[in-house]
Amino acid sequence: MTLLAAFLGIVQKWDCMFPQRRSFKRAVRQSLGGLVCLGRRTITRIIWTNGGQNRSWGAEYSLHSRCRWNPQRLFTPIVQQAMPFCRGRYIGVAADDTRLHKTGRCIRQAFYQRDPLSPPFHVNLVLGLRFLQASLLVPLYRRSTVGTRALPIRFQEVSRIKRPGRNGTPEQWKQYRAAAKKYNLSQKFVAMVPDLRQVLDTAGASPKIMVLAVDGSFCNRTVFATRVHKTEIVARARKDAVLCFAAAAGSRRFYGTEKFTPEQVRQDEGIPWKEAKIFYGGKRRRVRYKVVPKIYWQGGARRRPLRLLVVAPTPYRKRKSSRLYYRQPAFLLTTDLSAQPHTLLQIYFDRWQIEVNHREEKDTLGVGQAQLWNEVSVPKQPVLSVASYSALLLASLLAFGAERGEAYAALPKWRKKAKRPSCLDLIALLRKEMTQNPQLTSVFGLNATTEAFTAAAAA
Questions:
Q1: Pairwise CA distance, residues 370 & 37, whole Å
Q2: What is the DSSP letter of 73?
Q3: Rounded (to 5) percent helix, strand, coil in the chain
Q4: Where in the sequence is the domain holding 368, given as residue range(s)?
Q5: Residues 316, 372 share a domain
């Protein structure tokens, strides 16, 4: 099986998600063109890459503005075909928000927000879109010597409620504050969790437990208040969060009077350190941790029992002869009270792969570079690009497995230790197979040639 054949086998399931056959073919053309395009991923450059520079371009834009299709359904076949790689009782899903830079002032969903790349001593603002992403954590280390691969399974736009102007009335400000509480990032995450659980159940994973690994921005009262069957949360907490145990039996109080923080637990020598082996950075490493079961976070989770995991600072050296450095300790709060600690720690360590998704989506695939301003098109086109990226990652697993084999191009001397294919490796191989197997793409009206790729890049 080739990478292109595996990719087309996945996206073939998109046929029933579009109202017309021609719309489905147009979506597949844009999907492939967006992956193999050289330079900025604008709609016009994708059209030229597909060999359609002499055809009308209006229908390509209407796919996102006028055609009625649910973009989140594109991830359903990806979840279904990825389930055989997720063995075990627990399925890890990483969730985080990301920003796509925009410059158009006519984009209704764009707003000024904090730039995460700004230095800590000077906060910068950037105009852009905000998306909430969820990625399925596929534990490849159980079968080979490579780490976890994250497959995006949700990518939905989360816009901010527009503030009233200077002359806003008190009633407008009251409505704004109420809407801001109802439609914030945490509320969107809570609304997404049942949909993720339903997709997993449909894919045959109903007996398994979904563990959502999130960062500190989702460690709040809104998130911990949600309860979905067979769904648990592990979130990074502040070191100064005020925790407590339950009150003694026979007391009229529910919370104990003695309070403590995660940092105090880390410094408490009466609580012993334990060790677990975690696959991280290409090999299994020993991690020290502490566990405090059945605690309560009165300000965040209310009366819902939690478990605290404290991960010790990990020593490392930049070079063999350099001094010893230490990474920051981690404090995790989880709603799961029965799972083995090393299982939850492994899922949270694997959460870093969603950051790899963000980098490849924006830097390598140019998600968000399409110049669209229509209110319907703006949140839909990036989802098609991310779904194509996720299908490409899954196609590589189905066609060649987890490791980097002979099918990929030879690496330069300074990259001989690469064990799994990068996103650029997959794109280069896909571009090669599209030019060598034109019969596979001709049914979608796509004429892929090397000359078209280079001509579109110079446009």
A1: 12
A2: G
A3: 40, 20, 40
A4: 3-215+352-457
A5: no
Name the domain count of the chain: 2
Q: Is position 379 within any domain?
A: yes
Cα distance between residue 161 and residue 242, in whole Å: 31
Place of tokens 């769904």: 231
Asked if residue 344 belongs to a domain, the reply is no
Indicate whether 257 belongs to any domain.
Answer: yes
The β-bridge partners of 154 are: 134
In what helix (H) or strand (E) does residue 29 lie, and over which residues does it extend?
helix 21-36
* Residue 314: closest CA among 363, 281, 339, 271: 281
Long-range contacts of 305-308 (CB under 8 A, 24+ apart): 305/337, 306/224, 306/333, 306/334, 306/335, 307/333, 307/334, 307/335, 307/336, 307/337, 308/237, 308/243, 308/262, 308/265, 308/332, 308/333
pLDDT tens digit string along 197-235?
999 999 999 999 999 999 999 999 999 998 999 999 999
Question: Six-digit token pair at 107?
Answer: 């984009």
pLDDT tens for each residue of 335-382: 999 999 999 999 999 999 999 999 999 999 999 999 999 999 999 999
Final residue before a domain boundary, out of 331, 364, 389:
331
310's tokens = 């404290």
